[in-house]
C-alpha cells in the first residue's frame, strides 16, 4: 500500500494488519543534474540532506542530521551523508532509521525533513524522491516525488508521533526554504 | 619471442604441433577436453590419466608436478572447435586441497622446434580445486591460444558439467582414480611427444615411426603403453614420494574464507527478547567478536542511560515551568486551584519519570543478562583476575587485540560493569594517579594507603601486560628512586619478571632513562630511514614498559625531558610509560608538564568517575581490577611468564 502523496497531503498511516509500527526508515534518493558544457568536472552537483528532529512536547530535544548521525539515545540513526546523489539507481541515497521501541519516553514526535544543501531548488534536481518505509517488512508506506516541486529548497516530509500505546505517521509534504534543519524550525512548529 | 598472456588474452599459434608444459610445484592432474560446434564435450574427446591419448592430444598418465601435454591440432577431429587444457588437484594424496594454498601454476606453450610461443601464470586462485588453464580454438581456419585461468571450487565434476558433458561426475571420479593409482610408481611417467617420437631411435618393440606419429599411432594399446612406460616398474612397497610436508602458500594469519558463524541465540519466546549469547557480534575470531560485543554493550548502556537522563531532565524542566506558570497566575493564589495545578504538574512529572525508569530497567535487565554470559566467556586478556581462566593461564603465542584495564559503570547501574578494553599495542602511556581525587572512595583511605594502592594497581597492570604478550616480546623496567614501592613491586622482582632490579637513586633513574631514550632514538631513526636491518644486534626490539614511581623525586631536568620524550615518541616504537604519580607533587614544574599528563591515559587506584565515552560523553566510573584478596594468581601467572621466557631464550 504505497501512497503517492501530493503537495500538502496529510494522511494517517498504520500497518495494514492493524498493528503499530516498530521501525521506520525515511529514504531519500536523487540524481545529479546532467553535465553541461565542456568542463564536466564543473557539473552542478546536488547535495540533498535528510534530517530528523526529535520533539518532546513541542520542544526540540535532539536532532539527527549529517553532523550528528546517531541520536544520543541511539534510537534514530542516519546512514551517512551523500554529497552527490545516486547515479540514477533509484535506491535510497540517504536514509534515517528509527527504532521506535527505543525512542525515549518523553519524545512524542519525530519530524523528517529534506534540505538542498547546495541551494538548488527541487525543480533543478532529477528523479528526487522521498519515502517512508516500514523497516520490519520493507513495505513502502508513503512516497513523495520532489522534482518539479517548485521553487523550494526544503521539504518537511512527514512526522511519526505517539498515538495511544504505539506510533502513527502523518505525511506532511510541506514545502519550505532553508539550507539545514535549523532554517526550517519556524516552518516545522505549526505542524506539531 | 614469448608472449606473456594475461587472463582473457589470445595469441596466434604458428604451428599445429605444440607442446604445453605446466609447472605447478605440486602434483596436478592434467586433462584435455575437446569441444565441438555447440561447445559441448563428448566423452571420447577427453584425454586424462586413464585415457592418456585421444586423436591429436596426449596427456601424462598420472598426477605430476610438471605435466607436459602434446597436441597436434592437425590431427584432432574436424568437428572439434576448441581444445581445453585443464588442471586439477588430485584427491586423497594429502597434498594441498585448493589452488590458493599452492604456488601459482605456470604454463608455457611451445612450438615443434621447442621455441616458446606464449606463457601464462595463473594467479588469483583461492578455493578452486580444478581449472581451465588455456584453450586452443579455431579462428577463421587458424588456431589461436587464449589464457583462461577459470577455476572451479567444485572440482573437476563441476568443471566438466559446466562444459556440457553428460555424466560429468562419473568421469571426474574416473579421472581422479586414474591420476592417483593405488600402487605408487617411483619413476614419473614420461611422455612421448611428436618431436621425441620422430627423432627417437626405435627399439625392436617400438611401433614404426609412421604409427608413432600423433596423427594415428597413439590411439592403439601400444601407444597407451608408450604413454606410461613406467607401468612396467611398479614398486608397490616403496613409500609414496610426496615432498616432505607440502608448502602451504596461504598467509598463516590472513583469513579469506568466511569465519565460522557466530553462536546463534536460542529462539526467543514470543514477546520476550532473545536470550543473550557470548560472541554475538561480528568479527573474524571469537576474540574479535567478544571485543565488539563488549563495545556494543558499552554503547548500548551509554545510550540507554542517555535516554533515561534526558527523559527525566525533560520531565523536571516541564514541571518547573508549569509550577512557575501556576505561581505567576494571580487566580491560583487563592483557593485550591493552585494546589490542584501544582499536584497535577508533579503527577505528570512522576508519571514520565516512572515510564523512563521502566524503559531503563528493561534495558538494564537485558544488558545484565548479556554481561552474565559474556563475562565468563572472556579470554584472560579481557577477563578479571577472579575469572577461572587466569588459573588455567598459559603463555600466549600471539598478542591479543586488546587488554582490560578495569571496569566501567554508571551511577544508574552500579552493578553492571562493562570491561574497559584498550587496544594493544598501547597507543599511549598509562598514569595511575596516586593523588587524592574528590571521589568518595579516595576520601575513605589515607594518603599512604592510596599510594600503596596505586603502586599495587600499577604492578597488576604491568603483570597483565607481561602475561598477555608472547614470551620475550614484552619487558618491564622499573624506576623506584626512593624504594617506596618495594613491597608492591615484590611480585615482579621475586618472579624475575623485571628486566633488572628497580632503579634507585638519581643515578639509577638517569641510567634507565638514557638506555630507553637511546632505544627510542635508534628505532625511530631506523624506521624513518627505512633501515630496520641496520639496528645493533643486541637491541631488544620487543615492547618495553617503564614503571615510574614517585615522579618527580629523583628526577633532574634532563631526566624530566627524557621522560617527556619517551611519552611522546615511545608508543610509536613500542616503549610505554606506566607512571605512578600525584600531579600535585610536580606543581613546581608549572605548566611545562601539562602535555605529559595529557598524553597519558589516567586511571585511578580507587573508583573514580573521570572517563568519558565517545558517544554521549557520560562520566563513567573507572574501577581498577583488583586481585582477589588472598589469591596467589598474580604470582602464579608471573612465574609461568618467567619460566616461558627462560625456555624460549634457550
Automatic annotation (TrEMBL), chain A:
Span of domain TerD: 1-179
Lineage: Bacteria, Bacillati, Actinomycetota, Actinomycetes, Kitasatosporales
InterPro entries listed in its UniProt record: Stress/Tellurium_Resist (IPR051324), TerD (IPR003325)
Name used for this protein in its record: TerD family protein
